[in-house]
Write a structure and sequence with these properties.
It is a single chain. By secondary structure, the chain is mainly alpha-helical. The protein has three domains: about 55 residues; about 80 residues, no CATH class; about 45 residues, no CATH class. The chain is built from nine helices and two strands; from the N terminus they run H-H-H-H-H-H-H-H-E-E-H. About 5% of the residues have low confidence.
């Protein structure tokens, strides 16, 4: 619905769409069908906000907010890219009912990658949540532009399809005897060819 707002111009269409897609237990399906019947016969559809409250009352987890707050206490960015990190955080902020940007800012500072936090501290740490998000996303974009090399993308016989060094996996193939002008004979194998090419 967010991605195609023109397809869902009214609250009634949004609510009917959601009710038609509710599935799971027989109770859920019966409830959704009954709600649609009630709204249609009474010709009074709730607003989208009112419908969300009805859904929350019927199916919401009363402990969800507390669980989300506890999750945020321990969540760490690790190696997660900046945009994914913020998308995940903002989902949990919604679940934890956190709308205060100062609180969100402190959670991000605590959860972000410590190396990135140290680098930003040296360069000048952003003062707000919005600035911090923008800075981390900008740094990620710049890193992509620089084209960090991934060894797995190299076209080399030293790596197999999964990016694992594969030189030792080559079996000795038929040896080729090569005479170098005026020098002794030596054996060159497929493995030697691989190492010479790289």
């Amino acid at each position: 619905m967010i991605g195609n707002p023109k397809e869902f111009p009214t609250d009634q269409i949004r609510i009917a769409f959601v009710l038609s897609w509710m599935s799971g237990s027989r109770h859920v399906q019966t409830w959704a069908s009954n709600q649609q019947t009630i709204f249609t016969w009474s010709e009074t559809w709730p607003t989208w906000v009112e419908f969300q409250a009805i859904l929350e009352d019927q199916y919401g987890d009363p402990a969800a907010e507390q669980q989300a707050q506890e999750y945020l206490l321990h969540y760490k960015q690790g190696e997660t890219p900046a945009r994914s990190f913020f998308d995940t955080l903002e989902l949990w902020f919604t679940l934890a009912n956190i709308s205060d940007k100062d609180e969100a800012y402190n959670i991000v500072k605590r959860a972000m990658n410590p190396h990135m936090r140290s680098a930003l501290t040296i360069a000048g740490f952003p003062k707000t949540y919005k600035e911090l998000r923008a800075k981390l996303c900008l740094l990620e974009d710049e890193e992509r532009k620089m084209g960090t090399m991934d060894a797995r993308t190299l076209d080399s016989c030293l790596f197999n399809d999964s990016g694992v060094a594969a030189a030792r996996q080559y079996k000795r193939a038929q040896s080729a005897v090569i005479r170098v002008q005026g020098q002794a004979l030596f054996m060159r194998t497929q493995e030697d060819e691989c190492l010479i090419q790289t």
